[in-house]
């Protein structure tokens, strides 16, 4: 099973972290630091596997990482995962990001962190690989994005009315749910 | 709100506390529109962990969303269930999730399967009943759902017995996948569903392990996968690697092995570094079965040793470690030490440290080298070392080997080197090393003639002044000094010390000093407390502290308050809301007397026992076991001994890899293999380098080929306890077969007696858990064999579980059906299960429950028509002992069986009190035996009969039931009739116990 997915940049700033096993906040940061310390020292021409980080799990665990331009993608897995398989999974994940963001860069990860998480949720769920087919992942994410738009459209009107009534005594609560940078392309009705 | 939540997530990621936003995340998931929900759920799954209390607020939301008609909402709910969900609330949503398995949309089905998998992981007992649904998911028409269900199976086939019937399905699926029957969408770089293939291969390897008939079904498809995976992309290598591993795990087939070996060759020789790494890994895995392969690639391995990448280097060393034998041990250990010296970073403590000592004790060529190497290891690794290494080292010193002479020599060498080390600069030695030094000097400095105890004391004394010395180390040092303190010279040192450190703030230290002073001044007492015995007979520790009874009664008579166990005290405190000072009444004056029992054990025992001394009137079993565990196990206790003793032969079996290499010339010249194509000799320095490498190779791989010619270096090997590799091995009948007997893990050693046990019986054997080695036992029934009993083993068994061995000398009854001795007849027991039989012997066993223990009764009967006069019965109880360790002090839910519990007779009032004292509870509805006239009574009595419970009381529609673990905590059950089913509420002080008992109740009621 995958225990943690860490993405950080060349300076060790975390860009996305996702743990599938509980660690206290402190420990999480420590793990990130240690992992960065281990990974950043390695040249590009050595192997992509690392054993023996002392914080997560001990000897049964390994780190599998890839380095893309300014970002490190690190998966921490136990012995039940195939090394090369995970290495290619990272590739799939990155390619998917690329498709969804059109030329993904570090800034995309910062400003659309929630979206990256949604994409990741479609790839890995609870530490298990859920889907490895890029088209399928993109389709799922698209489906959800479309829902976003329909929220603002006709079908969501009753729901919005209800929530408006609910929030009546909270005037400061924003009614309009379409905030800023969520990119919406073509308005269309929800299929259901 | 949504935007804010995303920012809060961002803050948390950067390590800033944002716990104030947790509740808002939950609210967002609850109230918001679908869009808000999505953010809310995401934030919840990132912020909270499974045991967070706020998570309970989410349950209702999840429930609502699961029922929603909106696909996306259902998806989100399932996702969050798969990531975090409180364990106690699983029953609430379980039916809903199960329902989703039939959902028309495949994505929903797939997520539902994974959510169920999550449940299986955190609470296996509660999803017991839906295994059939997993099977259905496996046959789902959508490959995505099927592959999701493979996660579950990969987890479950670690206990392969019950899933053998699925092998055919797995093989068929793999065949279809490999054959490209899946839709084109599943291709990744034109390889059909690679991740699916990898997973299937893993499952197959688990299923086919040690099972010939199952393995035979797989050969064809494995061959096919090997053939189809053309080398063109990373992912095909992944499949190939998995294939190779599977082939080497399952029952071997020559053709496939050959192909797999070729594949490994491709890996190792590949210029890509990742593949090289995997190749080395595969070699490490394979080399136990086929040392030839390592020989073929020796030049590559040598190159990898000098590789720039530390990881590769480490992997290579691991490989080298596997091929260590008596002849190459010096070179390999030298390499390992070099690695330790050069790698300054975090890897160093990981695995090499563990391997070294085992490595050396098995093969070390001579004593002085051994001591020297161990010193270097201690110095280098020091405090990062796992604690069991110094422990096993000390054990080795104290237990000794075959010859007493050699022991003495070894001890002498150790003492010598340590004295000189202390004379140089003790300040720089690591803590653990200091501990080892002080123990050895304490025990064995008398071995060296002319070394006055006082001199040693003077050497040890400065250690107490070191600033970086931890108080644990100081305790070790003082304990050593106490052992040595005899004679007037010592007294002066002791007094000097007492003056200097008498004011220390550390109470343990002060107590120790006090003891030292006393014992040094009173030689008579010293001899009585610390008898100088030669052999290291394990000391009997009276864990019940019964010798204190007299003292206790005196104290009680003098008006001291009786001892109360902590929970009772707490309760009273809570009731009175006032401070109670009672328990402190009698603790102090006991310390000295209690330390005398611990005698020559370890300092930890001393401190433990004095800590326990308040524990008087009630001989609490908890205190007793804690004493045994914490103190004694660490180094010298019985359990410590045995665990290691059981391990060692296996290790030995693993590391000695005989290799039938016929090409080798005699006389230990360099083993050149014909397969390695040496590069054309280049002139000049490169040739030189090449030669050096070859020399190194010949050193490293020496002995790998020359089997049988073990020579004098292997003397040490004999030291490993003879039990395991001997022929007679009776393993427990209760064993689930999860631990393979040591003989399985290695091809039978070349120099062992020609015992055909393995090959003769195991493949055809119908029941996989039968002890394979048994048949070797009956070849000469009439031969003169001694009744040998492994003393070590039987001792612990009796100590822990008290297994009674029905003596084979018992007159065999004429009818030859097993019958129990009289004293056991009346007791409840399991049915007598036949274990195995052959032409001359029948072995069967059953389990008898007494009040205090479970007895394992093994029947041996003679089935041949000749009269058997003598039997040799040897019990090696590695498995039994393992089970005991697992079961008792740390209660292990999965291995527990109802045989481990006893009815607990309490009155209703006591029950009430116990109920309040137990904190872990679980509620569930059970099926009722509704056809009976009095369903409640009938149900409870069924439970009583099946599970050894005590029905305390039944009042109207409620009943209370109690039981307890063998020498363990009680578990209480409250049952109430409720709408046609039985609402039970279980409580215990052990968190796992109620869950476990509940599961057994369910089972007991399910089987009519």
TrEMBL record, chain A:
It is found in: Cytoplasmic vesicle membrane; Golgi apparatus. Residues 1-147 form the AP complex mu/sigma subunit domain. The keyword Protein transport applies. Transmembrane segments: none annotated. It holds the Pfam family Clat_adaptor_s. CDD domains: AP3_sigma. GO terms for biological process: Golgi to vacuole transport; intracellular protein transport. InterPro entries: AP_complex_ssu (IPR016635), AP_mu_sigma_su (IPR022775), APS3 (IPR027155), Clathrin_sm-chain_CS (IPR000804), Longin-like_dom_sf (IPR011012). SUPFAM superfamilies: SNARE-like. Keywords: Cytoplasmic vesicle, Golgi apparatus, Membrane, Protein transport, Transport. The keyword Membrane applies. It comes from the Eukaryota. PANTHER family: ADAPTOR COMPLEXES SMALL SUBUNIT FAMILY. Belongs to the adaptor complexes small subunit family. This is AP complex mu/sigma subunit domain-containing protein. It comes from Gadus morhua.
TrEMBL record, chain B:
Residues 783-793 have a biased composition (Acidic residues). Its main location: membrane. The keyword Protein transport applies. Pfam families: Adaptin_N, AP4E_app_platf. Residues 666-691, 726-802 are annotated as: Disordered. Residues 738-764 have a biased composition (Low complexity). It is found in: Endomembrane system. Residues 902-1006 form the AP-4 complex subunit epsilon-1 C-terminal domain. Keywords: Golgi apparatus, Membrane, Protein transport, Transport. Transmembrane segments: none annotated. InterPro entries: Adaptor_Complx_Large_Subunit, AP4_complex_esu, AP4E1_C, ARM-like, ARM-type_fold, Clathrin/coatomer_adapt-like_N. The keyword Transport applies. One of its GO terms (biological process) is vesicle-mediated transport. GO terms for cellular component: AP-4 adaptor complex; endomembrane system. It is a peripheral membrane protein. Belongs to the adaptor complexes large subunit family. Adaptor protein complex 4 (AP-4) is a heterotetramer composed of two large adaptins, a medium adaptin and a small adaptin. Subunit of novel type of clathrin- or non-clathrin-associated protein coat involved in targeting proteins from the trans-Golgi network (TGN) to the endosomal-lysosomal system. This is AP-4 complex subunit epsilon. It comes from Gadus morhua. The gene is AP4E1.
């Amino acid at each position: 099973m995958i225990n943690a997915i860490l993405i950080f940049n060349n300076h060790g700033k975390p860009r996305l972290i996702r743990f599938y096993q509980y660690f206290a906040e402190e420990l999480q940061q420590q793990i990130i630091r240690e992992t960065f310390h281990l990974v950043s020292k390695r040249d590009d021409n050595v192997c992509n596997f690392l054993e023996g980080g002392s914080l997560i799990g001990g000897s049964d665990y390994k780190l599998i990482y890839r380095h893309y331009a300014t970002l490190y993608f690190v998966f921490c897995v136990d012995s039940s995962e195939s090394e090369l398989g995970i290495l290619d999974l990272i590739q799939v994940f990155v390619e998917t990001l690329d498709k969804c963001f059109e030329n993904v860069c570090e800034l995309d990860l910062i400003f659309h962190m929630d979206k990256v998480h949604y994409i990741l949720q479609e790839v890995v769920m609870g530490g298990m690989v859920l889907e490895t087919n890029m088209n399928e992942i993109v389709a799922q994410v698209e489906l959800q994005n479309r829902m976003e738009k329909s929220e603002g459209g006709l079908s969501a009107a009753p729901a919005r009315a209800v929530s408006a009534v609910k929030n009546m005594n909270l005037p400061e609560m924003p009614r309009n749910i379409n905030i800023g940078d969520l990119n919406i392309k073509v308005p269309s009705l929800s299929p259901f | 709100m949504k935007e804010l939540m995303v920012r809060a997530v961002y803050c948390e990621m950067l390590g800033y506390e944002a716990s104030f936003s947790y509740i808002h995340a939950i609210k967002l998931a609850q109230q918001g529109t679908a869009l808000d929900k999505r953010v809310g759920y995401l934030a919840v799954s990132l912020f909270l962990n499974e045991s967070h209390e706020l998570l309970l607020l989410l349950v209702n939301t999840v429930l609502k969303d699961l029922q929603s008609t909106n696909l996306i909402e259902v998806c989100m709910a399932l996702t969050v269930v798969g990531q975090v969900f409180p364990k106690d609330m699983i029953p609430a949503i379980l039916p809903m999730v199960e329902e989703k398995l039939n959902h028309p949309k495949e994505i929903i089905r797939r997520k539902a399967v994974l959510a169920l998998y999550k449940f299986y992981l955190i609470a296996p007992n509660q999803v017991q009943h839906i295994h059939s649904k997993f099977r259905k998911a496996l046959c789902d028409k959508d490959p995505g759902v099927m592959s999701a269900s493979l996660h579950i199976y990969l987890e479950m086939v670690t206990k392969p017995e019950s899933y053998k019937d699925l092998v055919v399905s797995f093989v068929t699926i793999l065949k279809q996948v490999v054959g490209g029957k899946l839709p084109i969408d599943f291709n990744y770089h034109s390889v059909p569903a690679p991740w699916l293939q990898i997973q299937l291969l893993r499952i197959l390897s688990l299923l086919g392990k040690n099972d010939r008939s199952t393995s035979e079904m797989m050969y064809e498809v494995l061959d096919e996968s090997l053939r189809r995976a053309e080398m063109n992309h990373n992912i095909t290598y992944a499949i190939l690697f998995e294939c190779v591993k599977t082939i080497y795990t399952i029952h071997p087939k020559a053709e496939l092995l050959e192909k797999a070996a070729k594949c490994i060759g491709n890996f190792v020789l590949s210029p890509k570094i990742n593949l090289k790494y995997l190749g080395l890994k595969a070699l490490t895995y394979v080399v136990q079965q086929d040392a030839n392969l390592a020989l073929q690639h020796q030049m590559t391995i040598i190159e990898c040793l000098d590789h720039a990448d530390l990881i590769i280097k480490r992997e290579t060393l691991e490989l080298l470690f596997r091929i260590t034998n008596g002849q190459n041990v010096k070179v390999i250990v030298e390499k390992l030490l070099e690695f330790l010296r050069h790698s300054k970073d975090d890897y160093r403590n990981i695995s090499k440290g563990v391997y070294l000592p085992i490595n050396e004790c098995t093969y070390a060529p001579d004593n002085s080298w051994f001591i020297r190497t161990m010193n270097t290891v201690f110095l280098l690794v020091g405090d990062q070392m796992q604690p069991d290494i110094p422990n096993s080292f000390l054990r080795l010193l104290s237990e000794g080997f075959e010859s007493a002479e050699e022991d003495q020599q070894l001890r002498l060498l150790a003492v010598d080197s340590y004295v000189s080390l202390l004379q140089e600069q003790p300040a720089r030695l690591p803590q653990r090393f200091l501990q080892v030094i002080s123990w050895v000097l304490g025990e064995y400095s008398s071995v060296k003639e002319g070394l006055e105890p006082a001199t040693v004391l003077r050497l040890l004394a400065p250690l107490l002044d070191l600033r970086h010395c931890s108080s644990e180390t100081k305790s070790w040092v003082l304990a050593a000094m106490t052992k040595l303190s005899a004679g007037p010279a010592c007294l002066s040192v002791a007094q000097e010390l007492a003056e200097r450190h008498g004011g220390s703030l550390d109470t343990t230290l002060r107590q120790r000093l006090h003891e030292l002073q006393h014992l040094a001044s009173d030689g008579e007492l010293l001899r009585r407390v610390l008898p100088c015995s030669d052999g290291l007979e394990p000391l009997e520790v009276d864990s019940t502290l019964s010798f204190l009874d007299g003292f206790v009664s005196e104290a009680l008579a003098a008006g001291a308050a009786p001892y109360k166990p902590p929970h009772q005290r707490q309760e009273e405190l809570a009731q009175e809301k006032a401070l109670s000072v009672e328990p402190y009444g009698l603790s102090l004056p006991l310390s000295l007397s209690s330390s005398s029992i611990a005698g020559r054990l370890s300092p930890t025992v001393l401190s433990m026992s004095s800590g326990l001394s308040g524990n008087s009137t009630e001989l609490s079993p908890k205190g007793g076991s804690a004493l045994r565990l914490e103190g004694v196990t660490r180094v010298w206790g019985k359990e410590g001994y045995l665990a290691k003793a059981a391990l060692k032969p296996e290790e030995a079996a693993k590391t000695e890899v005989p290799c039938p290499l016929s090409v080798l010339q005699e006389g230990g010249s360099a083993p050149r293999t014909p397969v390695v194509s040496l590069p054309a000799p280049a002139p000049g320095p490169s040739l030189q380098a090449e030669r050096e490498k070859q020399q190194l190779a010949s050193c490293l791989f020496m002995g790998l080929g020359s089997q049988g010619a073990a020579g004098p270096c292997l003397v040490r090997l004999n030291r490993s306890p003879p039990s395991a590799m001997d022929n007679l091995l009776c393993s427990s009948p209760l064993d689930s077969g999860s631990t393979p007997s040591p003989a399985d893990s290695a091809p039978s050693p070349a120099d062992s007696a020609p015992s055909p046990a393995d090959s003769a019986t195991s493949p055809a054997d119908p029941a996989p858990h039968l002890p394979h080695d048994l048949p070797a036992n009956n070849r000469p029934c009439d031969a003169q064999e001694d009744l040998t009993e492994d003393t070590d083993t039987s001792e612990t068994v009796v100590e822990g579980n008290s297994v009674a061995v029905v003596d084979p000398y018992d007159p065999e009854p004429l009818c030859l059906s097993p019958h129990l001795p009289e004293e056991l007849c009346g007791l409840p027991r399991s049915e007598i299960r036949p274990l195995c039989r052959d032409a001359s012997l029948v072995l069967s066993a059953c389990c008898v429950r007494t009040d205090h223990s479970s007895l394992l009764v093994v029947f041996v009967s003679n089935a041949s028509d000749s009269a058997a006069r003598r039997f040799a019965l040897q019990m090696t109880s590695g498995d039994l002992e393992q089970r005991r360790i697992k079961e008792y002090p740390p209660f292990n839910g999965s291995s527990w069986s109802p045989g481990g519990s006893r009815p607990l007779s309490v009155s209703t009032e006591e029950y009430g009190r116990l109920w309040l004292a137990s904190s872990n509870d679980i509620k569930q509805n059970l099926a009722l035996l509704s056809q009976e006239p009095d369903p409640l009574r009938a149900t409870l009595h069924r439970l009583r009969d099946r599970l050894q419970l005590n029905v305390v009381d039944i009042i109207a529609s409620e009943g209370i039931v109690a039981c307890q673990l063998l020498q363990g905590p009680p578990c209480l059950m409250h049952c109430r009739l409720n709408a046609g089913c039985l609402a039970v509420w279980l409580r215990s002080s052990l968190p796992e116990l109620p869950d476990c008992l509940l599961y057994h109740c369910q089972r007991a009621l399910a089987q009519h």
